[in-house]
């Protein structure tokens, strides 16, 4: 099949979904009110509650949710063939992700900008809230470890991307100051910042002096490094420390100083990146060489496909962003459709081109099958295959290979860093909420909660030993990240369903994807936790088994509690304002 035709069909369905389905949901189900006073105005504090232009907020929301996951998951899932991957991305985005992201945003806005974890108290009771907060806490902890691991390895593999990524920080601070203190528009400064970043990227890809290659500085791959770790492990350790210092600072600053302007830059970067890839697709006009299905796969796609592709089809982490940060910045309630649903569509567009970049990379089916000979091979090489495939697509616009690979790695790192920053900020919120719940005043303090978030994330990513030696925590946690992410999405859809039912509205649009998602994820999780991780190759995978078993049991407990609340006719503590 021709890749252009596949892309066109997917994009056409996305357009239909936003144009018609999201409008139906906004007007008939959520009944958005342009005159409703949003939490951003009601609780405006200049730090977390900041009324924000919908385009700027969309940029923050989109880049916060569009980390490396919508690239990595699809690049792995094509192991089962491109057809099931494309179908899940396209229809999952339209009927599950869009409603989930939009719904958690609308629910939070109608409830003082509270996160879905906090709202669980009102919807399913105190016990359900605590269980849900702990699941969220474990998920964001894994997100921090996984994305820090991804960024550190990309910096090692693509040292030309380091300076362009870090130069974005002072540029974003300048834009934030100009926008909020001098009342300048963000658009032109952000485009200038993006031009500077890509100009530096072109230079660094050609000039070795501008490449921050820590492995080379330590004498090459065989160098001794520091603490006897070896050059590669030492470079990894240094980058993790640098990243954690950065996210500590970034996650405690007011959102207008760094978070919003940097994400606005990244939103343009994503648009530019997607434009390069889709235009490159038009000019290269590649054929799909990967098979539509893979009947000889060593593991079944059913149900593992639905947890391998999380971000890009539906992701629980999006609900944390929608209700944790985006709801506190929404200027008008009617902007929720643009920010929430279109943000999910944007990620679906990214996941679609990720699939196409990989399935057109190889010259023939035999070479694809050799690279994707097993699910383990697919998991280990997925991100690298995307970067190579994206580089080939960019060559259609006559962009040199070294420049293209640097720019693609910058895009991936920028999105992953944005997600990491937002995730640490969310973890701080959750720790503070638990401090309030258990009457531990120290945990309510911003810097105490942030320190716990950063130190625990650092320990999780660098301490576990895995197949890649030191610092394999992020790699080891990836299989559990997908299952936890989907369970969180299912629980969030269940909470939205309870809310809609109490309002007397049609909740089928959320309950149907919730049932499908929970069934698939719990099935896949049971197989992994109790049949693989408990005892595999004559030894247990303790890290995954412990985390997985806790999440699995907590989820079943929440589902039983929520089912009672869904069937109950009583009003779970809603105010008159919520019911308008």
Automatic annotation (TrEMBL):
This is Carbon starvation protein A. The lineage of its organism: Bacteria, Bacillati, Bacillota, Bacilli, Bacillales. Keywords: Cell membrane, Membrane, Transmembrane, Transmembrane helix. It comes from Planococcus dechangensis. It holds the Pfam family CstA. Its main location: membrane. It comes from the Bacteria. Residues 2-363, 379-524 form the CstA N-terminal domain. It is found in: Cell membrane. It is a multi-pass membrane protein. Belongs to the peptide transporter carbon starvation (CstA) (TC 2.A.114) family. The chain crosses the membrane at residues 6-21, 62-82, 88-109, 130-152, 158-180, 187-206, 226-249, 270-288, 300-321, 341-362, 397-420, 448-464, 476-500, 507-530, 542-560. InterPro entries: CstA, CstA_N.
């Amino acid at each position: 099949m021709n890749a252009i035709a596949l892309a066109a069909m997917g994009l056409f369905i996305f357009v239909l979904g936003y144009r018609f389905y999201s409008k139906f949901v906004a007007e008939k189900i959520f009944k958005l009110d342009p005159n409703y006073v949003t939490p951003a105005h009601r609780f405006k504090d200049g730090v977390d509650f900041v009324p924000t232009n919908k385009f700027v907020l969309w940029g923050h929301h989109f880049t916060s949710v569009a980390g490396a996951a919508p690239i990595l998951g699809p690049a792995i899932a094509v192991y089962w063939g491109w057809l099931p991957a494309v179908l899940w991305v396209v229809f999952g985005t339209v009927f599950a992700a869009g409603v989930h992201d939009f719904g958690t945003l609308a629910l939070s806005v109608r409830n003082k900008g509270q996160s879905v974890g906090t709202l669980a108290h009102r919807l399913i009771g105190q016990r359900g809230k605590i269980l849900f907060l702990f699941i969220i806490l474990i998920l964001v902890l894994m997100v921090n470890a996984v994305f820090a691991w991804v960024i550190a390895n990309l910096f090692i593999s693509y040292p030309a991307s380091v300076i362009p990524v870090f130069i974005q920080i002072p540029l974003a601070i300048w834009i934030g100051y100009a926008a909020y203190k001098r009342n300048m528009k963000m658009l032109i400064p952000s485009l200038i910042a993006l031009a500077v970043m890509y100009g530096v990227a072109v230079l660094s890809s050609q000039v070795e002096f501008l490449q921050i290659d820590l492995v080379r500085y330590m004498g090459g791959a065989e160098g001794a490094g520091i603490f006897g770790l070896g050059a590669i492990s030492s470079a990894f350790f240094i980058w993790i420390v640098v990243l954690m210092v950065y996210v500590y600072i970034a996650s405690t600053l007011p959102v207008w100083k760094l978070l919003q302007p940097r994400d606005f830059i990244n939103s343009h970067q994503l648009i530019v990146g997607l434009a390069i890839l889709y235009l490159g697709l038009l000019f290269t006009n590649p054929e799909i060489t990967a098979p539509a299905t893979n009947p000889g796969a060593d593991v079944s796609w059913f149900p593992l496909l639905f947890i391998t592709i999380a971000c890009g089809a539906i992701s629980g982490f999006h609900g944390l962003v929608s209700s944790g940060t985006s709801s506190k910045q929404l200027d008008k309630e009617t902007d929720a459709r643009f920010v929430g649903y279109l943000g999910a569509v944007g990620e679906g567009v990214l996941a679609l081109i990720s699939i196409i970049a990989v399935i057109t990379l190889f010259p023939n089916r035999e070479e694809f099958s050799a690279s994707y000979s097993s699910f383990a091979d697919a998991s280990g090489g997925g991100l690298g295959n995307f970067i190579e495939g994206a580089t080939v697509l960019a060559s259609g616009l006559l962009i040199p290979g070294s420049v293209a690979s640097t720019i693609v790695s910058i895009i991936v790192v920028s999105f992953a860093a944005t997600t990491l920053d937002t995730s640490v900020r969310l973890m701080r919120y959750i720790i503070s909420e638990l401090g309030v719940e258990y009457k531990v005043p120290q945990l309510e303090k911003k810097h105490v909660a942030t320190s716990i978030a950063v130190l625990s994330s650092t320990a999780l990513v660098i301490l576990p030993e895995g197949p890649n030696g030191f610092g394999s925590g992020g790699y080891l946690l990836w299989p559990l990240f997908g299952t936890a992410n989907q369970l969180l999405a299912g629980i969030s859809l269940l909470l939205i369903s309870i809310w809609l039912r109490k309002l007397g509205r049609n909740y089928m649009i959320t309950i149907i994807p919730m049932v499908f998602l929970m069934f698939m994820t719990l099935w896949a999780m049971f197989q992994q936790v109790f049949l693989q991780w408990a005892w595999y190759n004559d030894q247990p995978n303790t890290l995954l088994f412990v985390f997985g078993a806790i999440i699995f049991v907590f989820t079943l407990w929440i589902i039983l509690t929520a089912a009672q609340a869904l069937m109950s006719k009583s009003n779970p503590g809603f105010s008159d304002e919520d019911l308008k």
